[in-house]
């Protein structure tokens, strides 16, 4: 029996020429090498993500929430996940609208599950985006892990799909260790007692 937690890595940007797929691919390699996860990468560029939302919030509508047909695969992937990594750039000191839409179309899929962040950008490395995401995911009763990865000036500090920082692999392992602990603990807790959201 596979006791690994299911990790979903979400590429948050859909902008033309985005760097997110390179970051997500590298981090997925680290997660696979870690050995504690079954890894799946989700690209929001492949998902139907309207900005207009139904009147009733997904928190109250539950399984009857009327999502677009093109979102069904994403919803199933988020539901099955035990843990998430959100790969995000920083746009105007925050994160992309595509990522906010993906988050807002769901609720229970995030609840009582751990989330880590891998960000990239200019001098701040996407840290402003992560600060905003931490607030949003906390509201959805997710657990944001303390460790994360940030890649400042990624356009200067990556080559051949890999970061030049020699410590990046070790830092990724630290993120994955925390995520694995939380994923296992929260999966067990969810199985034993329904979360009181």
List the helices and strands and how they pair.
Blueprint: E1 5-11, H1 20-34, E2 37-43, H2 58-61, H3 72-80, E3 83-89, H4 97-104, E4 114-121, H5 127-139, E5 143-144, E6 149-152, H6 154-157, E7 158-159, E8 162-163, H7 168-192
Helix pairs in contact: 1-7
Keywords:
8 strands, 197 residues, alpha/beta, six-stranded parallel sheet
Biggest sheet details: 6 strands, parallel
N-to-C SSE series?
A: EHEHHEHEHEEHEEH
Strand content: 15-25%
Count of strand segments: 8
Measured between the Cα atoms of the first and last residue, the distance is: 30 Å
Radius of gyration: 16 Å
Summarize the entry for a quick read:
The chain is of the alpha/beta class and 197 residues long. 40% of the residues lie in helices and 20% in strands.
Characterization of the model:
The structure is a single chain. By secondary structure, the chain is an alpha/beta fold. The protein is 40% helix and 20% strand. The protein has helices at residues 20-34, 58-61, 72-80, 97-104, 127-139, 154-157, 168-192; strands at residues 5-11, 37-43, 83-89, 114-121, 143-144, 149-152, 158-159, 162-163. Strands 1, 2, 3, 4, 5 and 6 form a 6-stranded parallel beta sheet that branches. Helix 1 (20-34) crosses helix 7. The two termini are 30 Å apart. The mean pLDDT is 96.
